């Protein structure tokens, strides 16, 4: 019940920022259209590239733009601010673990972003597809309930992975008076290795394998691979299992680093 209350409070809090969400939605949609134009030019009449058809590639831009908000793809400094401002002292006294508190808090935030920015982004793409895409293309949808279910599970696991590495990078605030640079560096890596800029299938094999060694590849790229049907059957199960393993590993690592950081905080505070 406590987790539900925290998530609900976070959801209601972020729901009040509707004007900011609308501005972010319009900005994301504009850049989404730019990405559609770039991909259309890159295909140059070819039916597909790296196993991805042009309609699937354009749908990819819709998905990647839609998850910007839920996955906090560009910035997230909440835990860092908590440490640097001293609010963590009060947070540690809550009748719930610090990591668990922020996990529930971020779930409420992600759900709000999905409803205010993710869903409208996809609806906007569907409505405007005839005007922003070539005439012979169409928006791609998952085929069947199993693919929809797999996409939903994949999206939740991608959020857990995203929270895990965001939480970990924010914990650098325990050891740095200005951790913002460290966090921004991690975010810049995620933009490239997550498949947000382009599907990882476009990259050379060796670079795909390198990205697959990071948790980032199992966020945006994983969602689009499952949604577009590029992964099927046993490959989907394997992908979801790897996602779950990364989520558990990152959350466990976050708990260990947090414990070390709190010990340092206690020592420095006397």
- SS content category: mainly alpha
Helix and strand succession? HHEEHHHHHHHHH
Q: Kindly report the average pLDDT value.
A: 90
What does the largest sheet look like? 2 strands, antiparallel
Helix and strand topology:
Elements: H1 2-15, H2 18-43, E1 48-49, E2 52-53, H3 54-66, H4 78-85, H5 88-91, H6 98-132, H7 145-170, H8 180-193, H9 205-212, H10 220-227, H11 234-269
Antiparallel strand pairs: 1-2
Helix pairs in contact: 1-6, 2-3, 2-6, 3-6, 6-7, 7-10, 7-11
Structure commentary:
The mean pLDDT is 90. The protein has one domain. Helix 1 packs across helix 6 (98-132) and helix 2 (18-43) packs antiparallel against helix 3 (54-66). With 270 residues, the protein is mostly helical. The chain contains eleven helices and two strands. Strands 1-2 form a two-stranded antiparallel sheet. Helix content is 71%, strand content 1%. The longest helix has 36 residues, at 234-269. It has helices spanning 2-15, 18-43, 54-66, 78-85, 88-91, 98-132, 145-170, 180-193, 205-212, 220-227, 234-269, and strands at residues 48-49, 52-53. It is globular, with a radius of gyration of 19 Å.
Keywords, please?
mainly alpha, about 70% helix
Question: How would you briefly describe this protein structure?
Answer:
The chain has helices at residues 2-15, 18-43, 54-66, 78-85, 88-91, 98-132, 145-170, 180-193, 205-212, 220-227, 234-269; strands at 48-49, 52-53. It has 270 residues and is an all-alpha fold.
